[in-house]
Amino acid sequence: MEQVNQEDWLDGELREAAPYIDDEGFTARVLQQLPPPRRSHDLLRAVILLGMTFLASVLAYVASGGGRFVSITLERLVALPALWIFVLALASGLVIAAVGATAAISRDRGLQA
Amino acid sequence: MELTDADLVARIFVDDDQHAFGELVRRHQSAVRGLLRQLTRTDVALADDLAQQTFLRAYKNIRSFRGEARFSTWLYRIAYNCFREDARRRKEFVGIDEEQLQAQRDPQVVDPGLRHDLMRALSLLPLNERSAVLLCCQNGLSHDEASRVLDIPLGTVKTNVLRGREKLKRMLADWGPN
After folding, report:
1. What ipTM was predicted for this assembly?
2. What's the predicted TM-score (pTM) here?
3. How far is residue B30's CA from residue A20's CA, in Å, rounded to a whole number?
């Protein structure tokens, strides 16, 4: 029993012997030394991706004769029976939802890792 | 609602959010600086330099934090590694000799304040016992967490805590409960 009291006493004294240390500019000094945030690289990456997408879209538009294939496809779609259009819309929705869910799960795993 | 350490780490991970990192530094600076001050035998300037190194290293390696341990445990491990590397460079003497121990027990050289005596007694412990006692008894880590921080087997941590405590009790025998 006395042994337990001794240990409690010692642990208590040890905890009390470690008072809170005021920040006094410590955090600011650490933050000053951090490397610049990655955001600039992300912005550059976004600009490159958007630029490439725009360029590819323009090329596809020109190569496809002014996008005539879009209007032809739309005309064919309109001519389809209503049931087919419903099935196509449902399938597209499912594919997009599956891709979104996969991306969210992989991102979540990345965060947990 | 206050964000948890894990939330803040996720913000740094995803957006490189330095404000989130600042909040983590504010939360843990006292514990990390306190631990390093004890490890460096109250060399405040050196301890604060090592604490800065600790947080910078934590920021650079934040992606290696897997969330298996508490963020504070992960930080202590980095802090201890920074201290150990510095001590290796300085070839710190980590032993304790019986003369020092006797000097502590001699009433003529014992300082009046218990806090002062405790700090002095701690500083006289060998590094392996001092660090184990500091982490487990002062900072509230479990033996298992301390073994990860110190990168030594669980049994060794338990032995070091036991030995360190015994020596502290001997050195502080006059102050203990009767």
Report:
1. 0.75
2. 0.64
3. 6
